Amino acid sequence: MKLILTAAVDNLGIAGDIVEVKDGYGRNFLLPRGFAIRWTRGAEKQIEGIKRARDAREVRNLDHAKELREQIEGLSVELPVNAGDNGKLFGAVTAASIATAIKKAGGPAVDKRAVEIAKPIKTVGSHTVGVKLHDAVTAHLPVEITAAS
Fold first, then answer.
1. Does some domain include residue 70?
2. Beta 77-81 vs 137-147: how paired, if at all?
C-alpha cells in the first residue's frame, strides 16, 4: 500500500514522505490514527504544503536546538489542574497540557510528541519533564503542578 505520511512515524519516515507499507499496517494503524493519507496524484501535490508546515516548526539545527533548550530551561511553568484534598489529581497530566503550559509561560511552541514524561504525573508538586528538541539535545523543565481553585 502506498501512503503519504502526515506525521513522523518511528522507523518509517517523517511528514511528507511517500512510503510503501503492508496493507494491514496502513489500513489498521497509520490511516485510522491520521499518521498517513492514501497516495494519489492529487494528494502528492499536498506534500508541498505538509513540508512547508514541517519546516516552519522544525528545529533548524543543533545550535538552534541549544538556544531553545536555554530558553525552555529558563522558564517557570505552573500548571493548575483538578485535584482532591489529599493532593492526588483527577487523572494525569498529559504531554499536550505541558506543551500548552510552556507556550503560555512565554516559551516556544513545542510539539506534544516532543514532551517526555518519565512516569505519569498524578500528584500536586514539582515534577521534571524532558522536551526533546533534537536527537542530541533534550531540555529538562521543572513543572509546578498546583490544585486549581
1. no
2. parallel
